[in-house]
Amino acid sequence: GDSVTQMEGPVTLSEEAFLTINCTYTATGYPSLFWYVQYPGEGLQLLLKATKADDKGSNKGFEATYRKETTSFHLEKGSVQVSDSAVYFCALRVGLETGKLIFGQGTTLQVKP
Amino acid sequence: GAVVSQHPSWVICKSGTSVKIECRSLDFQATTMFWYRQFPKQSLMLMATSNEGSKATYEQGVEKDKFLINHASLTLSTLTVTSAHPEDSSFYICSASQSTEAFFGQGTRLTVV
């Protein structure tokens, strides 16, 4: 079945370091791919998305490129801030039901000053 | 963006009792809501799709008599965990869709003692 695999955390970085969180997927169709972020005590928020191969999603300095050949959607940011500390979820959607998502296990990012 | 509110944020209950969790779309109407469950260090797993005015659709392996879902209005869906047991302890998250985006509640931490 469809699935998403994320790198295990926690990831601990110093402020201004480069961030990569790996995400790979398995899907039978042509999924849309998402990154969600969950700050402490809050709900999941959409960070960025890509709906077809080679699309690049970007938001708040974060980027991810939909790579069909490697079935990947790695999250990157050039310079992290303490305020980026959160849990990041990679997810895919196959089909038209916008709320029906398959999630990775989440990666906790901790950024230290 | 749209706001989805979940209540309570956390609850502790005794084994054998029932617990109700509410999910509200605060500023939009949602004909469909989704309920997820998250175990520690694991993915969010879709439990069921809640449809306003009709029966919920449960994912394979989810006991519909255990996890009762009611979607009586366009802004409210409830999940009732009946006769809760310690193995039901988990983090429950709801989502609702508006246009092409899914919005998530902040989650409910259920602990059954």
Provide a descriptive summary of the structure in words.
The complex is a heterodimer of chains A (113) and B (113). Chain A is mainly β and 113 residues long. Helix content of chain A is 0%, strand content 50%. In chain A, strand 10 and strand 11 form a beta hairpin. The relative contact order of chain B is 0.34. The model of chain B has no long low-confidence stretch (mean pLDDT 91). Chain B starts with a strand and ends with a strand. Chain B has 113 residues and is mainly β. In chain B, a hairpin with a 2-residue loop joins strand 9 and strand 10. Chain B is globular and about 40 Å long. Chains A and B meet through strand 6 and strand 11 of A and strand 4, strand 5, strand 9 and strand 10 of B.
Mean pLDDT value of chain A: 92
Tally of helical runs of chain B: 0
Distance between the termini of chain A: 41 Å
Task: Count the beta strands of chain A.
Answer: 12
- Element-level helix/strand string of chain B: EEEEEEEEEEE
Q: How much β-strand is present in the residues of chain B? A: over 45%
Radius of gyration of chain A, in angstroms, nearest whole number: 13 Å
What ranges of chain B have pLDDT less than 50 throughout 5 or more consecutive residues? none
Assign a percent range to the helix content of chain B. under 10%
Return the structural class of chain B.
mainly beta
Distance between the termini of chain B: 37 Å
The portion of residues forming beta strands of chain A comes to over 45%
General shape of chain A:
globular
| String of helices and strands of chain A | EEEEEEEEEEEE
Condensed summary:
The complex is a heterodimer of chains A (113) and B (113). Chain A is built from no helices and 12 strands. Chain A has 113 residues and is mainly beta.
Topology:
The complex is a heterodimer of chains A (113) and B (113).
Chain A: E1 3-6, E2 11-14, E3 19-21, E4 23-26, E5 32-38, E6 44-50, E7 56-59, E8 62-65, E9 75-77, E10 86-93, E11 102-103, E12 107-112
Parallel strand pairs in A: 2-12
Antiparallel strand pairs in A: 1-4, 3-9, 5-6, 5-10, 7-8, 8-9, 10-11, 10-12
Chain B: E1 4-7, E2 10-13, E3 19-25, E4 32-38, E5 44-51, E6 57-58, E7 67-73, E8 76-81, E9 90-98, E10 101-104, E11 108-112
Parallel strand pairs in B: 2-11
Antiparallel strand pairs in B: 1-3, 3-8, 4-5, 4-9, 5-6, 7-8, 9-10, 9-11
